[in-house]
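Support request from a user on the community tier.

User writes: "When I paste my C-alpha cells into the form, the page sometimes reloads and wipes my input. The last time it worked, I copied everything first. Here is what I submitted, just in case something in the input itself triggers the reload:"
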C-alpha cells in the first residue's frame, strides 16, 4: 500500500535539520498538515478512512507540484474530534480543547522556525468548525504565519456531476463517495457490505431543519444509523472512485499552485508594514 513514506522529498520529517533550517525560511514556505480521524466508517470501511484520504490525496497532489516549490507535508494527525461516533467500537476522540492546543502549540513552533503558511488539510467533516477556530487562535498567537483551514471535499467543482444529488446532500458519512474513493485508493481495506442506512431517521425533523446545512443540529450516528453509515453505498465502485480521485486532485493541485505562485494571504505582520488601507467606501 502506497503512502507518504515513499515520497520523502515532500515530507518535512524526512529532511535533515540543516536542510529544514534553510528551506523553512524560504519565501512562501508552506507546510500542509493532513488531519483525519480514528472513527467508525460503517462495516465496509476502515477506522482510518479520513486520515488515509487526507494523507493519500495530499501525497498525490504534492507529487504533482514543481520540485522547487517550498511546500512540504507534516505527518498526519490521525486522531481527531469524533464524539458523534461514540458507541461504535474502535472510535477514539480527542477533546476539542486538546485538539485546539495541539494546533496552536505545533503551529507556534513552525512560525518560530520561519514557516510562512500552514494549511490544515482536513478530511473529517466533524471537525471543520473546530479547526477553523483553532486556525483563528493560532493566527492570533503567531501573526507572522498565515493559517488556512481547508476541508478535502469542500468547494470541489464537478462533484455534483459524479454523485446523485440526494446522496450528495444526505450521504453524510461512509456513503457512496467515501466507499468508492476507498475502492480506488486502498481496495484491500474495503469490506463486502454495501449498507443503505441513516437516510430515514427515526427522529422526526421539523421543516427547515436538517442533520447538516443551514439549520443543523448536533447529531450522533447511533441515533440515526445501526450500521454507522449515513448514506447509500450500493452503487459504489472503483470506477467512480477513480473519477472522484481525479476530480479531488485537479481541484487541490489548482488551489496549491495558485497559492504557491502568490504571497497570499497577508499575515498580521505584513498588514502592519503596509499600514491601514487608504481605500474609501
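"...and here is what came back when it finally went through:"
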Amino acid at each position: 500500500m502506497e503512502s507518504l513514506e515513499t515520497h520523502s522529498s515532500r515530507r518535512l520529517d524526512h529532511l535533515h535539520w540543516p536542510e529544514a533550517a534553510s528551506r523553512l525560511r524560504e519565501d512562501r514556505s508552506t507546510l500542509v498538515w493532513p488531519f483525519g480521524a480514528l472513527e467508525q466508517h460503517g462495516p465496509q470501511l476502515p477506522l482510518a478512512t479520513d486520515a488515509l484520504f487526507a494523507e493519500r490525496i495530499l501525497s498525490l497532489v504534492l507529487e504533482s507540484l514543481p520540485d522547487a516549490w517550498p511546500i512540504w507535508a507534516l505527518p498526519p494527525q490521525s486522531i481527531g474530534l469524533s464524539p458523534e461516533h461514540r458507541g461504535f467500537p474502535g472510535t477514539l476522540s480527542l477533546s476539542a480543547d486538546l485538539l485546539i492546543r495541539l494546533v496552536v502549540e505545533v503551529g507556534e513552533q513552525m512560525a518560530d522556525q520561519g514557516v510562512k503558511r500552514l494549511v490544515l488539510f482536513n478530511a473529517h467533516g466533524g471537525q471543520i468548525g473546530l479547526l477553523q477556530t483553532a486556525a483563528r487562535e493560532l493566527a492570533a498567537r503567531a501573526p507572522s504565519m498565515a493559517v488556512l483551514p481547508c476541508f478535502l471535499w469542500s468547494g470541489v467543482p464537478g462533484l455534483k456531476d459524479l454523485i446523485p444529488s440526494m446522496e450528495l446532500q444526505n450521504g453524510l458519512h461512509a456513503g457512496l463517495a467515501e466507499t468508492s474513493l476507498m475502492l480506488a485508493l486502498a481496495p484491500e481495506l474495503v469490506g463486502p457490505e454495501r449498507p443503505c442506512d441513516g437516510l430515514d431517521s427515526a427522529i422526526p425533523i421539523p421543516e427547515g431543519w436538517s442533520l447538516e446545512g443551514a439549520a443543523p443540529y448536533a447529531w450522533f450516528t447511533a441515533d440515526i444509523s445501526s450500521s454507522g453509515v449515513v448514506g447509500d453505498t450500493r452503487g459504489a465502485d472503483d470506477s467512480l472512485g477513480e473519477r472522484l480521485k481525479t476530480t479531488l486532485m485537479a481541484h487541490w493541485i489548482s488551489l496549491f499552485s495558485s497559492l504557491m505562485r502568490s504571497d497570499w494571504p497577508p499575515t498580521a505582520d505584513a498588514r502592519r508594514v503596509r499600514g491601514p488601507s487608504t481605500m474609501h467606501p
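Agent notes: The reload is a front-end session timeout and is unrelated to the input. Confidence is low (pLDDT under 50) at residues 1-7, 277-281. The first helix runs from residue 17 to 23. Escalated to web team.
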